[in-house]
Amino acid sequence: MPPPPAPPQLRGVAPAPVAAAPSFLRRPVRTRLRLPAARAAAAAASVPASQSPDAHDAALLSRAADVADRSAGLTSPHPNFGCVIARPQREADGAEPLVVGEAFLYAQGTPCAELLAAQEAGEQARGATAYLNLEPGDCYGDSTAIGSLVQAGITRVVVGLRHPLKHLRGKAIQALRSEGIHVDVLGEDLQSNSFKEALESCLTVNAPLLYRAAFNVPFSVLKYAMTADGKIAATGGHASWVSGKASRGRVFELRGRSDAVIVGGNTVRLDDPRLTARHVKGHVPVRIVMSQSLSLPEEANLWNVNEAYTIVATQRGARRDFQKKLAMKGVEVVEFDMLNPRDVMSYCYDRGYLSVLWECGGTLAASAISASVIHKVYAFLAPKIIGGVHAPTPVGELGMSQMTQAIHLVDETYEQIGRDMLLSGFIQPIPDLSPVIPSVDEIPSVDPKVSPYEANIISFYKTWDTFGAFSNFSPHPIHMPDGNGDYFTWPTVEHYYQAHKFVGIDNPQARTIVQEIKLAKSPEEAARIGRTRQKEFPELVRTDWEATKIDVMYRAIKCKFSTYPSLTDMLLSTAGSVLVEASPHDLFWGGGREGEGLNYLGRLLMQLRSEILGTFPASVEAVDAA
Ligand SMILES: NC(=O)C1=CN([C@@H]2O[C@H](COP(=O)(O)OP(=O)(O)OC[C@H]3O[C@@H](n4cnc5c(N)ncnc54)[C@H](OP(=O)(O)O)[C@@H]3O)[C@@H](O)[C@H]2O)C=CC1
Ligand SMILES: Nc1c(N[C@@H]2O[C@H](COP(=O)(O)O)[C@@H](O)[C@H]2O)[nH]c(=O)[nH]c1=O
């Protein structure tokens, strides 16, 4: 499997931030430190911090959060996991532990942070302590994270946060303890004042996941650039540029850390934006336009879907002729009965998005704040004055008449960027889910036996979902032939599937593409390369692809499930249930948003399940008929 970028060799518990950490969540000037009430009370029993074991634990946990943060923006936003392995340097009290390994999860479908850190530590991991900002998500039916720590000889694990998703919460902690490893959880086993910063780092680095788990919406950030007199554009609507180059560079980073960027129709009409994360290498978010009228230009940068995918969210029935034109350009149009920010956020939640960046003007921003979907604000302030009574401002009408009604940002930070100032703050504090941690008995688990599930629907999509192991992005390498008939270990089913679009084509460019996909660092990247090359070079795609792709997929998933017994158990445990890949946009492999998709992946899994159980002849049609 191609390794993710090697973590730099860092030693010691230097307080300096990890080099090259993206800056989205940096806290340069912290004015207030907010600790969720329950935890603050727990932390009240103060312990002298300097050089105490708690201070070391806290520093290493913060470091794990910083390491975790390095993955953000490289791939599609996902929970950020970091692992730091450290051991005492000598027996003397107060000596700083030595960091012997550290790593982060690069993407879903790549080796977990614990495995990479343990590999880096090697023999030095024996008897050492592993610091994890987040409880590992054992969402694949196996337990690589736990197995790696156990095999490495780790004797103590310090966990910053229990996993916020119910089906994962407490599982890994319990598994580690049952392996005889001593586990300390922040706020439960470790409660001194020294952990305030560490806890906050752990909460912040996974804020999107926590909001998603708590409120069933993605984490939403409103970002705008305004002049010193509070305008986001000149009176006529001209806005390029309010903020300086360095600030706009920071915006590219913010985009790279988001699943989607949203603007309103008016911003499209006036700015013709691109909304890409150009200049930073990594993830490119989906662009979403909210427009009720659909009076949008025929030609616009956002309609160029070769740059990034675009979705237009509109009112049901709006300008159907124009909807068709957009669809012809590859733009997805989604109709809502009543277009509003909350429903659009529910839709984004269903699509599995963790975080959304709002880059709209004041009209839509006010609507989104009023609907309580905005969690955080990034306000870039440029040292300029433009004036204009009617020049647009960042937030339109909120219906407030007294200053006492103003929304107060919390956990605010200030940072100078070039000649601009960036003020950020939370509108809604990061939810700390620890008070509602269920006991382990309450945690639903996947029955490893064939279980008498009633006929119902089991959906899967993101790899961290309960049945996330069914996703082609799950990190289960498969050993199968490549184009030359040589056996190769494909990091995921997705890698194998995407590469096979070009396998067997007698053309050097096609062979290069196969190679490129083989080496893709994550399934997401493999998918992106496969799809874009297919669009760019249709002549390089095998002519029998449409007829053969189902077989290719079936071979791959069959290999995956037969290689990993835990996956077979999980598949059999769903007997009697209909499996649906809950992809709202892939109408061939997925089930679609309202069940309109063909759900071929779900069907193939059911076919495989039947084959293993020996109940059905192996064919998709047979499953379909059933
Ligand atoms: N400096 C900065 O950071 C930024 C500046 N700007 C500037 O702001 C100006 C545009 O601001 P503004 O007019 O407020 O633009 P918006 O981006 O807020 O767009 C408003 C439009 O959003 C659509 N919309 C859809 N649903 C809703 C809803 N529920 N509530 C409100 N609007 C909805 C409507 O589109 P429709 O009419 O199509 O139905 C509406 O006209 C431009 O001059 C632009 O340059 C914009 C973004 C950032
Ligand atoms: N004018 C303005 C911003 N405007 C936002 O950026 C969008 C343009 O993005 P792009 O086309 O990708 O460069 C624009 O439509 C609006 O949403 N942003 C800023 O950081 N600073 C600025 O001064």
UniProtKB/TrEMBL annotation:
Q: Which GO terms describe its biological process?
A: carbohydrate derivative metabolic process
Q: Which CDD domains match?
A: NADAR (cd15457)
Q: Reaction(s) catalyzed by this protein?
A: 2,5-diamino-6-hydroxy-4-(5-phosphoribosylamino)-pyrimidine + H2O = 2,5,6-triamino-4-hydroxypyrimidine + D-ribose 5-phosphate; 5-amino-6-(5-phospho-D-ribitylamino)uracil + NADP(+) = 5-amino-6-(5-phospho-D-ribosylamino)uracil + NADPH + H(+); 5-amino-6-(5-phospho-D-ribosylamino)uracil + H2O = 5,6-diaminouracil + D-ribose 5-phosphate
Where it sits in the cell: the answer is: Plastid, Chloroplast
EC assignment: the record states 1.1.1.193
Q: Which InterPro entries match?
A: CMP_dCMP_dom (IPR002125), Cytidine_deaminase-like (IPR016193), DHFR-like_dom_sf (IPR024072), Eubact_RibD (IPR004794), NADAR (IPR012816), RibD_C (IPR011549), RibDG_C (IPR002734), Riboflavin_Biosynth_HTPR (IPR050765)
Against Pfam families, the record matches this protein to: NADAR (PF08719), RibD_C (PF01872)
Ranges for domain CMP/dCMP-type deaminase come to 55-184
Its EC top class is oxidoreductase
SUPFAM superfamilies membership: Cytidine deaminase-like, Dihydrofolate reductase-like, YbiA-like
Keywords from UniProt, A to Z, are: Chloroplast, Glycosidase, Hydrolase, Multifunctional enzyme, NADP, Oxidoreductase, Plastid, Transit peptide
Q: Provide any one GO MF term from the record.
A: 5-amino-6-(5-phosphoribosylamino)uracil reductase activity
Query: Which pathway or pathways does this protein act in?
Result: Cofactor biosynthesis; riboflavin biosynthesis; 5-amino-6-(D-ribitylamino)uracil from GTP: step 3/4
What GO CC annotations are associated with the protein? Answer: chloroplast
- Looking at the record's lineage, which domain of life comes first? Eukaryota
Q: Which family would the database say this protein is a member of?
A: In the C-terminal section; belongs to the YbiA family.
Among NCBIfam families, the record links this protein to: eubact_ribD, ribD_Cterm, ribofla_fusion
Q: What is the official name of this protein in its record?
A: Riboflavin biosynthesis protein PYRR, chloroplastic
Origin organism lineage: Eukaryota, Viridiplantae, Streptophyta, Embryophyta, Tracheophyta
